[in-house]
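Recap from last week: sequence in, structure out.
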Amino acid sequence: MSARDARASAHFVNIGERTNVTGSAVFRRLIEADDYEAALDVARRQVESGAQVIDVNMDEGMLDSERAMTVFLNMIAGEPDIARVPIMIDSSKWSVIEAGLKCVQGKAIVNSISLKEGEEPFLDQARRIRRYGAATVVMAFDEEGQAETAERKFGICERSYRLLVDEAGFPPEDIVFDPNIFAVATGIEEHDDYAVAFIEATRRIKANLPHAKVSGGLSNVSFAFRGNDTVREAMHAAFLYHAIPAGLDMAIVNAGRLPVYEDIPEPLREAVEDVLLNRRPDATERLVELAESYRGRSKEIAADLSWRSRTVDERLSHALTQGIAEWIEEDVEEARLALGRPLAVIEGPLMAGMNHVGDLFAEGKMFLPQVVKSARVMKRAVAWLTPFLEAEKEDADSSSAGKVLLATVKGDVHDIGKNIVGVVLQCNNYEIVDLGVMTPSARILETAKREGVDIIGLSGLITPSLDEMCFVAAEMAREGLELPLLIGGATTSKAHTAVRIAPNYDGPLVHVTDASRAVSVVGTLMSPERRTAFADEVSAEYGKLREAHGRSGGRRPRATLEEARANRMETDWTACAPPVPFALGLQVFDGWDLAELVRYIDWQPFFSAWELAGRFPDILEDAEVGEAARGLHADALAMLDRLVGEGWTRPRGVAGFWPANRDGEDDVALFSDEGRSERLATLHTLRQQMRRGRRGRPNLALADFVAPPGTPDYVGAFAVTAGDGIEERARAFEAERDDYSAIMAKALGDRLAEAFAECLHERVRRELWGYAPAERLTNEELIAEAYRGIRPAPGYPACPDHTEKRTIFRLLDAERNAGMGLTESCAMTPAASVAGLYFAHPEARYFGVGRIDRDQVEDYARRKGMELAEAERWLAPNLAYEPS
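Predicted structure tokens:
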């Protein structure tokens, strides 16, 4: 069978995933804007392009996912040209899956279920799926983790099949197994057999599990060659050539990027198949060596200099759009000589080029990384013209569209998002006054008056920043300012802006979710014709949100603290002896190997920081954002090479382990000795107060994972940082007017800090605590948390109180041992830092505390020795009531 045959075969199904908010930025924007008619066109184009199944995913934090799934699938039901293909309902939340199942008229496919949580929940979900008449994807994943070998893959699938068919009465023809396609040619010997294992498992499934189907995520197999499309596409075609005859029924395949098997050059085809089929021990080395000669596409694009023969205006526009800075000075100088005045170059071809960039960005035809590159070219052009402007005593900013002040509020040190917004606004001809991080209210107001700014934008990442934004708004009102105020940052929301910030300020106030929206919001607020109507519209919307919040009391019915504690997680400690760490006390790590950390990077949050949505590595093959994602990823890898090779920074960290026991219901006592005679510290935890059904889950607190007095137990803590070298390098890039590299460095710093936390946790499990010495997990499994134990961090859902960092930092002496500090709002410095706790309980898992009631907050404040009002300020996002 050839690849051409595979694409045309009626027995092989192409799955389209453009109707997926995590994989398509365009589709996500349409759904967020409630433009379901346009979203239907995305689905229609998928079907017209040959998709035989449509994957629909609405999992996005800002969406009401159940509503979005319901509305969209109901609309599809009325479109015969779309509804003629099956719908794959894709979600990590059962409530969303069930909402979709209620809407689909034909046979749906659920993606996915597995034995990860055990047999009981697996069978429960399967029976519900069966009642809806749907098929389901079943992952080769059980209580021990993802399957890697053919034996394990088939074993899990066989066990799942028997449970589904024999116990749940599930029709075998409605079962689709995904035996996990993993990357090969990674340089790790254990990975060499991954493709063979998938093909062999597929063959055994088809031979032994009658009527079951097999699917897979194709792009994973070639992940080691990211950035080299020719090799990746050859690997995909060759993999299908061998997997389809073995029984592969369906996969997410970009058919337009799939070469014909016979057309793959013989040397490349042989080398690819040597890797996929693990035919020789040096297969990886041979393919890596050969791959360099097949980086054809990027080289061809780079070598195409035909645009250099165009007019100077066209060359400038092309350079800005493509982010090419190589000839910008000579082209700008040619334009200056032709136009006579430097300001004419800025107001003419440069602004025309940037306006074109802005239009493409707004239309979804350019993406954030490309726009930031364009801004870098623009800054170099303006830098060249600046001496001529000064010589003429011209004001380079006379044609500015407006002046915007941006600041990360007091106590907060995170500024990647703010910097991106600033760059995008600059691309649209706004002058930016950037006050950086840790900016007090008085400085914001003083600068706004002195500079005569038109708009103020506040940013914050940690929850205490929300209170500081309320304070800044109140101070603006007290001093009589009526400037538009923009609110943004990871912890902010429209609801919080409406309920908490808006009552403090009478001027225009708008919550902005991302950089792409900032441009249109600022443009509207700068327009004399549109500003008032827009501000009134937003104010009315926020008023309705406050009314709705007031009617609901901002809450759902909660269990009392006493009831929640009565429904705690119970452990038979006689059968669950807590493991003893190999070495109690502190372990200091100064100058951790940067190269090792690179291998632990989770790339998906990196792309999210650049507002590129999609699962990694699938995003690199995405039909819409793939090109931007590949370019961004290549730049990131190149910077990582420099970062590691030149030693830009020195990662530092510290971890500690102490004897511990639960103290009362919700606290944990740490001791200096095994006899537990001297208390070092008390960790204070919060308990879920949502009401559970009669057979509901427990109301968890982190203290549940620690044994009560009488059973010796232990708790660990850690603090790690990528080092202050990242911030120093970012400042150097900013001084060179290279915002793209500055933002890239900070984004990579964040990823390295998280990778450090992941890498250290693995060492803790295998060596320092040593309760899982035989653990051997892939990076994908680490990211999926397929290990025993957790490392919750203060400020995150299981431990929302940032002040617990103070206890952790004191225990670890983090300032001396790791060079880390805390601001008054408990933000960590350097910004690329992570800190948290270690729990080893075999049933420990991440959870969200959610909304808590006054009785728990009062109890928590008493336990911590805090005033109630102070506790309420720190826990404001979690309160299920209005503070007095």
